Amino acid sequence: TTLFRSHLADVVDWMVEQDDKAKAKGKPGWISREQIKMHPENPFRFLTPARAQQVISAAPQCIGVVKQWKEAKGKA
Questions:
Q1: pLDDT truncated to tens, each residue of the chain (76 aa)?
Q2: What distance in Å separates the CA atoms of residue 64 and residue 59, rounded to the nearest whole number?
Q3: What's this model's pTM, rounded to 2 decimal places?
Q4: Who's near 39: CB < 8 A, 6+ residues apart?
Q5: How far apart are CA 44 and CA 38, in angstroms?
Q6: How far apart are CA 36 and CA 40, in angstroms?
Q7: In what helix (H) or strand (E) does residue 49 lie, and over which residues does it extend?
Q8: Are 44 and 31 in contact (CB under 8 A)?
Q9: Rounded to whole angstroms, how far apart are CA atoms 55 and 50?
C-alpha cells in the first residue's frame, strides 16, 4: 500500500528492534540489521511468504504501532 511505503524506513526500524528483542529472549526474529544491510532496496526479502503477507495485511495497524513507537522513542 502507498501508506505502508511512505513509512517503510520506520517500519523496518521497528521490525529490527522487535527482532533484537525476540533474539534476546531466545526466539526467532523477523529481520536482522545484517539482512537489511545486505539488501536495503528490498528489506523484506528475508521474510517468509507467510510473514510477508501478515505484514502487508496488517499494514494499517502496523503504521499506527510504528507511529506510537517513534513518538515514544522521541523520533517523531
A1: 465 667 777 777 777 788 888 888 988 777 777 887 787 777 777 777 887 777 677 666 777 777 888 888 886 5
A2: 9
A3: 0.57
A4: 45, 46
A5: 11
A6: 5
A7: helix 49-57
A8: yes
A9: 9
Q: How many residues does the chain have?
A: 76
* Distance in angstroms between the alpha carbons of the first and the last residue of the chain: 22
- One-letter amino acid for residue 64 of the chain: G
Q: How far is 18 from 1, CA to CA, in rounded Å?
A: 22
User: Cα separation of 26 and 70, whole Å?
Assistant: 25
Residues 76/67, Cβ–Cβ less than 8 Å: yes
Grid cell listed for 41 = 532496496
The whole-angstrom separation of Cα 31 and Cα 18 is 9
